[in-house]
Design goal:
It is a single chain. By secondary structure, the chain is an alpha+beta fold. The protein has nine helices and 16 strands. The strands form two sheets. Strands 2-3-4-1-13-16-15-14 form an eight-stranded mixed sheet. Strands 6-7-8-5-9-12-11-10 form an eight-stranded mixed sheet, with helices on one face. A hairpin with a 5-residue loop joins strand 15 and strand 16. The longest helix has 16 residues. The radius of gyration is 20 Å and the shape is globular. The N terminus is likely disordered.
Amino acid sequence: MLMGTLPIASASSLSFSKERPSFLSNSLECSSVCCIRSCYNHHPTRRLALFQLGTAIPQSQLFGAKAAKLLRSEENSTEGITSGNRATAFKEQDAFNWVKNDKRRMLHVVYRVGDLEKTIKFYTECLGMKLLRKRDIPEERYSNAFLGYGPEDSHFVVELTYDYGVDKYDIGNGFGHFGIAVEDVAKTVDLVKAKGGKVIREPGPIKGGNTIIACVEDPDGYKFELLERGPTPEPLCQVMLRVGDLDRSINFYKKAFGMELLREKDNPEYKYTVAMMGYGPEDKTAVLELTYNYGVTEYDKGNGYAQIAIGTDDVYKTAEAIKLCGGKITREPGPLPGINTKITAFLDPDGWKSVFVDNIDFLKELE
């Protein structure tokens, strides 16, 4: 989905429990805590209602007692349900069943860059992506570029947004990295170096495992983790976000998104736990990597990373399921002015924004 100029997100403080960890790790050694940069002001446009970036919202505002209980429970028990709320319970179960059977996949991830042409050059020459399409919206003072490893109707891609006159963004410390599967990590790193790119983790096995990884930064400071794998239909394979309560997030993405928990791994030595969520196997589809750092409950999301877009057969039913899970709707379901693509937007328990897009309308958009 396209994004226009957005106001900056307010910084949220990093909160720790009494057992404060000595550092913030990430799941695969790639991301460090980003420095908070100075903010600037934007003029919101008529697209603000659709693409306003969610800041870190206090959990008490996002979730009531009923929603919290729903998210934390893995069982859909009806014991103790009175006749007065039995209809609601069945409605919830129907919604969750529909979500599991909905045709969903991750379409694209949206974020802002300070120099569109420079970023396109880095992604195509260093990371092997293809420029799929590009468009300029001068009346709204922004441009978009879509890049990836295959056509948008079958691949997960990145959507870059350049807002006129803005050359720097605060990435914050909540966003972690994007993952790219490559057949030869060392060769890719050599190419990045030859092109003047920044390597922040040299090739080598991941701590506690055998997978060969490396980490690089794009011109705006977004981190890319290179994972050595065999041929895959989906090289752009991960989006890593940090969350404050992993169990709560897993249950939310299961129920509201219909994702599967593909694997979960605790790393007590480094004080973090990761959960891989998605709609298919990690080696064949893009997945969402949720990372919990021991004792950290909130993160600064900055104003660079924006959202993930996911396809659905019905944005109206999707919005109802999200509400039942306690998600905060930021854009009620319905068609976008001008292009009539139906969408709905919301925030997850940690304030990360996602947009669901009607599958048929999305394909029409590509035409």
